[in-house]
Every structure is written in C-alpha cells, then in structure tokens.
Amino acid sequence: MLDSFQSGDFLSVLKSYGVYGIVGAIVVGILVPILFKGSKRGKQRGVPVNVGGEAGYAVRNARVTELIDVPWKGATTMAALFELSCKKHSRNRFLGTRKLIEKEFVTASDGRKYEKLHLGDYEWQTYGEVFNRASNFASGLVKLGHDVDTRAAIFSETRAEWLIAFQGCFRQNITVVTVYASLGEDALIHSLNETSATTLICDSKQLKKLAAISTSLKTIQNVICFEDDESSKDTGLSESLSNLTVASFSEVERLGKTSPVPANLPSKNGIAVIMYTSGSTGLPKGVMVTHGNIVATAAAVMTVIPGIDSKDVYLAYLPLAHVFELAAESVMLTAGCRIGYSSPLTFTDTSNKIKKGTKGDASVLKPTLMAAVPAILDRVRDGVLKKVEDTGGLVKTLFDVGYKRRLAAVEGSWFGAWGLEKMLWDFVVFKKIRALLGGHIRFMLCGGAPLSGNSQHFINICMGAPIGQGYGLTETFAGAAFSEADDTMVGRVGPPLPCCYIKLVSWEEGGYLTSDKPMPRGEIVVGGHSVTAGYFNNQEKTNEVYKVDEMGMRWFYSGDIGRFHPDGCLEIIDRKKDIVKLQHGEYISLGKVESALMSSNYVDNVMLHADPFHSYCVALVVPVHQALEKWAKEAGIEFQDLSDLCEKAEAVNEVQQSLSKVGKASKLDKFELPSKIKLLAEPWTPESGLVTAALKIKREQIKAKFKTELTKFFGLILSSWLVGWMILVSMVDVSELSATSRSVPVRKRSSVALT
C-alpha cells in the first residue's frame, strides 16, 4: 500500500503549482484569519442518564431519548434486513469483484517466486442477483441435510461469496460459525468441534489446512469450496477428505435452484453467529451474536456516517470473520451501498501481487468509504512521511508548511478547516497523496484498537476525510461508541452509539473512580441492544463478564478503563489486564506505554513486559526496517542483513534512545521506560500467531515464543544489581550494615537495579 506513493510524481505536481501555492498560502494565511474568526465547537454529544444495574456514571447518545434497535420497521433480523434491502435496491449494484486477466510468477534476485496479477475492472452483481444466489444456496444447504439444529462454519478470506453464504444460511435459520483464515490448527479444530459444525465453507487455499486436520474433526460432514478461477476446478483434495461430501459453491447453488425450499426465517433473539475471536490468551472463545445485535449496531452506525446512501462505494479488504468488518458490511447493506472486494496484497498500484504497470483495487474502485485498523493507518502515515523526507527540497517545504497550516486550522478555525485555505492546500499538496486510496474517500471508519492522535490528524488532513474512530468488542458486535464526523478532537472514541448505554464503574484497586475530577473514570460497561448473548458452551465465563439488571437490560463488563469528557465523549485510557504492579508498588499500564513507544520512527511493533517480582520493565521491539537500515548506513554501521543489524549494540542503543525520547515526550515515568530492549527482525503477523487479525499483539503468545529472551533480560539486569550490591557490601563494615539495613529505603534497590 505504501509503495504506491510515488515521490517523483509528487515532486512534479508540487513543482508545477509550487510558486502559486506559496503565494496563495501567504495571502490566504494572512487575510483569512483577519476576516473570519474561528469558533470552538461546543456540541453536546452524550448526556448522563439514569439506568439500572451496578452504580456508576452512565451516558447515552444525545441524539436519542430511547435506544434504537432497528434501522426501519420490519428489519428485526439480519435475514429480514437483507431481504428488504435487496428488494428496495434490487437493480442497484451490490457486490463487486475484479476480473482476473492474467496471472504470472516473477523470480526475485534471491530465487524466490512471487505471484503477480493483472486484474481488470470490477464485475458487479445487483442486490436482486445476490438475493437470488443466497436463496438458492440456502435451499442447497437444506438438500445437503441442514436444518435449524445444525451449524455451518465459514473459513475463508474476505470475498463476495463469503457474504452470500453468510446470508444464505440465515434464509434457513442456520447459525454461522466464523473462523479466521489465519487461525492456527489447534484453534480451528477447537472451534469446529466445540460448535459441532456439520458443514465447512472455505476457499481452495484452506483445503490443505483442512486435509491436515480432518482426522481431528468430529462432526464435519460436508465441505463447500469457493471457486477461485479455472484452475480451482481441480482442488487436489487428498485422500484424507474422501470420507466427506465435497462440493463447489456453484454446485450447491444449482442444487438449490433446481429444488427450491421455502425460507425458514429466524427470530430477533435467535443466534445468528458464533464468532470466534483471535484473543490474546489461550484458545479462542465463541461469542454468540443474535440477529438483534447485528441490526441494532447497523441501525446505530447509520446515524453517524453523514449522508450514507446507495451512491457510496465501500472498499472491503479486512477479514469478514472479524466483528469490525462484518459490522461495517452490514451497515453498507442497510444503506444500499456498493461493496467492492479487495485484499491487502492487491490494495494499491504497487501492492505485492499487482503486476507492475497495472492498477490496484483502490485506483479502479475509487471508494468513498473504507474501514481500517490503526496499524494500517500508522503505516500509511509513516510511508508518506518517509517519501516526503527522502525527496526533500521544495516538496518537503511545501508539505511541512501545508500540513502545519491545515493542522492549525483543524484544531482552531472552522473557516480554516473547511474553507478556501483547505481547498488551496488540497490542490497544491494533498491531491496526489489522496490518489493512494482512489481520490474519492469522504469518510473512514477506524476500529480494532486505539488510533494515535498523530495518525488521526495525519489521515484527516492528507486524505481530506474525517475519521470515525469507533470502540466496540466482539461481545457488543462492535457497537459501543463512535466519534462523529464533525468532531476534530483526537484520542477519543465519541459518545455511545444510539443503540446502547455506556456506564463507568469505579475500579478502586486501580485508582479509577467515577467521582474523579475533572472527568469521571472507571471500567467501561456497555448495556443495550448490541450486547451479545454470551460465550458458547462457557457459562462460567459468561457469568463473569455479563450481568442482567433489575429491568432486564444486559450489561457487558469490558475490562477497559475509560473516562467521559464534558461533552459526553468517551476516551479509552487503560485496560485492567494490562496493568502490572511492580515490586515496589508502582502500577504500570503496558498498553499505555506501548502506545507511547509506537510513536518512535523506529518502531513497527512493540511489547512491554513487566512482572511483580521486579522494579523495572523490558521490551521486545520489531523495528521499521527501512528506518533502522537508513540510520545504520548513515552512521557507518556495517551489517549483512536486518537480523545482523538487530544484534548490533549500536542499533539497540539508537532505538532505546528513541524510545526514551518519545517516552519522556509522552510524560512517562522513569520506571515505565524499558531498561533493556531486544530487536527482532521478523515482523509479527496474524499468520505467525503473534498478532490478531486486527493487528493487536497477542501478549501471551509473544511471551511464550520469546520466553528465553525475556528470562535473559531479567537475568542480565539482576546480575548487574548483584554486582552493584556486592560492591556496596565490600565498602561497608558487615556489622554496621546489619545494624542499619532495616533503615535503608527499599526504593534504593531499584536505583541500583536500573543503573
């Protein structure tokens, strides 16, 4: 995605308009602030409300007095919503997939072969056509033996057929089990066996994984495979699948078309999805999502995205098995939008799988709406800034001036934020950057993890589109809070969505109280129509985090810590599980520190580690390859490859100094800064099992993989402490030491340990 930012093209554009841009900027920059005075927005977005359940500080969305649960009358289930929307927009384009023109393999200098695709235009299916395909597929499932007491699992990358199969299951009240395509074998076996799924719907890429574990699957009887291209007709199934009924997706459709079965539609409280999360610890848990949960979130988000309708085009590339993408596509369905399918490897003109000289998905689709997780937006920002820095000269000067002026405008003057000066800088500086995503993005949805203020401002300014930063969990079907388009403040996730309440409950042990001033703080508890039914086959865990109040409202205890701003917007400030009490009583929030350290130019990913038996913390750091290698070359450091560079003491010292600098800028305490770091050359990916599909770190898995390194960290520092202690002992009379040792403050030890 980042490589599509062509510095040469950008330079020519800026040089073309450079002189006029500078003159115009000076004129507008001086006259506009004089003629138009800015005004601060004081809009009330959330208001306190009295609710039942545990005592706390509760807020609702200021737009509603009663929680909304449906987008329109009659759309009480996902099946009903799908049918009504397809009838309303029957002739409009709905799902689009690019046609494969040519596939070739390119051999790199290291001998490895890479697949390159030449893709054509998007080929579209209308809402009416998609409805017919889903209905046919549903009838085909019945012919294969499915009924309301059986479950079907989808194990595939995001694509149009994924959504068709998903909706088809609902036509016959069949619960869908969603499984990440990147899930490991143990987790895949666990999710399929626990739910007693009888049919597995997958793409041909996943068949090898299925063949390897087929003997461990207790209930799977049918395998339905999506066709990828002509070559996928020969699936190459191994003998290990010979005991299963294997059919292509189109064969099941034809079976249903020739033998149609009347629809058997679900109820509002029926379980639509058992969604397995790629959690940070242990085997994944299956969250039971009702039809009412899905339509409530869709109805609520519809009120937030400005002017969303059938003219909008959505670029879909995140995993549909993740609640964020599934919720986003449910919103698009509700609004009658077009959905064009993509992938991270074909996203832009220079994505890894796009043949050189041909167009990536964003350039062809020209989307108006898209969703992203913070890790992707952070990398877009870093990539653009690196190109600008490398180009230098007039390009860098204009970019810096334009960005600073736009940032000042966004934070202050309404006119400056949206008026003539914005148009000027957009034309002179930012137009080329926006071409990265097709040039027509008008609103972005961001979720999955906290987005840094720097990245939020950067995307907002450079892409010219507001970012709706959302907060939600699988347990609330992504529906909790969502920032509004006209809110230019960063670091917040907006007011509660109109489908739910958000309550803060005091956590006295952590020092977060609803009575705190100037803002109430506490654990975030979500109640309302988006709160799911609990964990499948795990009543103990369900009882632990789900509560029903005296009025019958269901509440989910998130474990996240938040605070409410005076305008009713929520800010996530901590997480209970990420807080570690150090040896001498100091509390350290791992997530908060990691978020601060991520702002270093050298950091691609980081995990902080601490435990109660020590007074310091350490960190594992995946560096930004280009940034570290560039520094090493400029510093005259010789290295063979990135792995070799990561072992160099000079490189470790350079990165650690950068971490200390950004940590101090973020006002971290000394004990929050890592005493030792380890640089790791290999990136953390969902395939490696070290990050989730939303690119959040899986702390327990990382700790297990790098157990030796973490143990060595503490051993080295402990040895350093022992040497220091022995030196002190040798300088003091033993009898004198024993008589005074009780009066020595314990914290003295930590200062020795940190040196």
From TrEMBL:
<dbReference type="InterPro" id="IPR000873">
    <property type="entry name" value="AMP-dep_synth/lig_dom"/>
</dbReference>
<dbReference type="GO" id="GO:0005783">
    <property type="term" value="C:endoplasmic reticulum"/>
</dbReference>
<keyword id="KW-0472">Membrane</keyword>
<feature type="transmembrane region" description="Helical">
    <location>
        <begin position="17"/>
        <end position="36"/>
    </location>
</feature>
<protein>
    <recommendedName>
        <fullName>AMP-dependent synthetase/ligase domain-containing protein</fullName>
    </recommendedName>
</protein>
<dbReference type="GO" id="GO:0016020">
    <property type="term" value="C:membrane"/>
</dbReference>
<dbReference type="Pfam" id="PF00501">
    <property type="entry name" value="AMP-binding"/>
</dbReference>
<feature type="domain" description="AMP-dependent synthetase/ligase">
    <location>
        <begin position="115"/>
        <end position="536"/>
    </location>
</feature>
<keyword id="KW-0812">Transmembrane</keyword>
<dbReference type="InterPro" id="IPR042099">
    <property type="entry name" value="ANL_N_sf"/>
</dbReference>
<keyword id="KW-1133">Transmembrane helix</keyword>
<dbReference type="InterPro" id="IPR020845">
    <property type="entry name" value="AMP-binding_CS"/>
</dbReference>
<dbReference type="GO" id="GO:0004467">
    <property type="term" value="F:long-chain fatty acid-CoA ligase activity"/>
</dbReference>
